[in-house]
Design a protein that fits this description.
A 3-stranded antiparallel beta sheet has the order 1-3-2. By secondary structure, it is of the alpha+beta class. The chain is globular, with a radius of gyration of 13 Å. It contains 2 helices and 3 strands, in the order βαββα.
Length: 79
């Protein structure tokens, strides 16, 4: 998990990205996590909270991000 502070907001919003993870090599995912976390921090849009990957159960994967404004957070991480 990446080093970050927890968002302490009563009305925190989230951006959750779902994708299929078809490769057991998670290094590209970890690189993406570092980039997402830094972009979110630089924009002051919230925090990147981590991922969940179920490689043995259909290859479902999720990225979790939280902040005060989900639309702003999405705009930051979309590129």
């Amino acid at each position: 998990m990446l080093n970050h502070s927890i968002v302490e907001l009563e009305n925190a919003q989230s951006v959750i990205v779902y994708f299929r993870c078809v490769d057991d090599d998670l290094q590209p995912l970890h690189a993406l996590e570092r980039d997402l976390s830094q972009a979110i921090i630089d924009a002051g849009a919230g925090v990147y909270d981590g991922h969940e990957v179920a490689l043995l159960e259909g290859d479902d994967a999720y990225l979790f991000m939280y902040g005060p404004d989900a639309e702003r957070l999405f705009d930051v991480v979309r590129p």
